[in-house]
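Archive transcription. Copying these from loose printouts into the bound notebook so they stop getting lost. Printout 1 of 2:
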Amino acid sequence: MVSAQAFARLASHFRDPSSWAIYEDVGPALDWLAARGLALAVVSNWDSHLPTLLKSLGLAGRFRTISVSAIEETGKPDPEIFRRTCERLGVAAAEALHVGDSLDEDYQGARAAGLQALLLDRQGRHGDIADRIETLRELPARLEEVSNR
């Protein structure tokens, strides 16, 4: 069992922006998506401090909505968090594409909610999944493929 003091130290670490590094492909991918006028959102299984953390990292303003499991009281892979996010974006689930790095929570969860999905597989562990990318640099080409389906 984790003591309250240990939990507080761990939570403090995870909430500290200096504990995080942003992958180099994130900024260019978000810029590319924004230049096309696409509505962007975050769907995350995280605590209620995620919006503050994203703001501290200079990322929050890039997203129209941030759906956090601790705030929503539902999380991935439950379809409800995906549905709520699509509603806030004003798009039908079938029109949305979710990109995430968890096979169960992101890829399968989004698909179960009726969204299209790409698995971000940075370590190349899921070569059997056709709808996967290893870097966000692949997103423009894959987005075109997905939109042509």
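Printout 2 of 2:
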Amino acid sequence: MNDAAESRPLAVRADDVSIRYASVRAGANHEAVKGVTFDIAEGEILAIIGESGSGKSSLAKAVAGLAGSGGSNPTITGGSLTVLGTSVRSISGRKRDRLTLKVGYVPQDSGADLDPRLTAGENVAEPIYSRDPYFNQLEAGIAVATVIDAVRLPLTTMNRYPHELSRGQRQRVAIARALILGPKLLVADDPTAGIDVTVRGTVLQIIRELHVDLGFSALIVSHTMSEVRQFSDRVAIMHRGVIVGMGGVEDVLDSPHHEYVQGLAQALDDLKTAEGLSVG
């Protein structure tokens, strides 16, 4: 952790955490995360990067409070994980409900999972009415308009349906939905996946600006180191379920100790070289 973060309380503390998925075969399971340790200070953004199957999305689900909640979600089988002061290993349903009110979660391709029967504004407002079905409609409308504006969408977007929006716009609606309750922690799993390359930078900049304005802590999964450098000072690099690099982005790249991290550093150097040649 950097010096500034060391003096702040922790939003997330993971100590030797292991996470498994139940298998369709009786008695079998798949270990997605194998004893990882890290923390996130209050107000800090930690990026997680890794190849497909590295365990980063499983870790994001656990931090979002979804591990052990059934369905396709994994289970924490080892170590401890504390999120916003609550231990989430074997957490009760009631405690999980209270915790998730304070955590905004943007799953992979969440823009595609918006309810097609609801307008964008209604999708964003849904967490409000899930918490309180009798919440004042005028106050809800103001809150939705405020967060829609914050993600740089015109207010007319509120009255449009998901199929009328571009993929990038839908993703911003999903981010607005995750932020509508004013969470203390944002967990975003690859928020630029599948979005046109010309829009990715805008989405990342929006998250960074919202982080500055609102002061939430964040865990953000990304798939490229070049993206990570745009929004985070600290990164955890995962490979086959373990963390193989952790620290300041430049420090990790300058002194890679694992061959996977070496490959990421080399790829970034190659990209810089190619960009320099194209400019020249």
